[in-house]
Amino acid sequence: MSPPQGNGLKFVPEYQYRANVQLHGALSTVVRGGVDEGLRQAATVIGVLTLAYRSRHIIETGRIVLRAVPRDQELRLSVAEFREVLGLEPARNFG
């Protein structure tokens, strides 16, 4: 199914539209407390894209998903793995 054409989405490549929708679903999962599941979803969405298709918009949406992780859960393995997918440095424990 193609995205609606009347609101400017006709200029967005279909892969980017799908990835963005899926990343927002992952964000919702993280916000509802499913940190590991949501980050796995987001990692899968970004991970299947070749580097050429990992647009700034998609990566920034991935960072929004990452920022939704509660501070007390930032050292989870799923967080470290997702940071790697995004090309970010590992989180540090300043404990």
Task: Provide an overview of this structure.
This protein is an all-alpha fold. Helices cover 56% and strands 0% of the residues. The longest helix has 18 residues, at 14-31. The chain is globular.
The Rg value, from CA coordinates, equals 14 Å
Instruction: Give the termini separation.
Output: 48 Å
Which percent band covers the strand fraction?
under 5%
Oligomeric category: single chain
Count structural domains: 1
Q: List low-confidence stretches.
A: 1-9
Helix content: 55-70%
Number of helix segments? 4
In terms of structural class, how would the helical and strand content be classed? mainly alpha
Specify the biggest β-sheet: none
- Mean pLDDT level: 86
3D shape: globular
Count of individual beta strands = 0
Key attributes of the depicted protein:
95 residues, mainly alpha, globular, disordered N terminus
Describe the secondary-structure layout.
Layout: H1 14-31, H2 35-47, H3 56-67, H4 77-86
Helix pairs in contact: 1-2, 1-3, 2-3, 2-4, 3-4
Summarize the structure.
By secondary structure, this protein is mainly alpha-helical. Helices cover 56% and strands 0% of the residues.
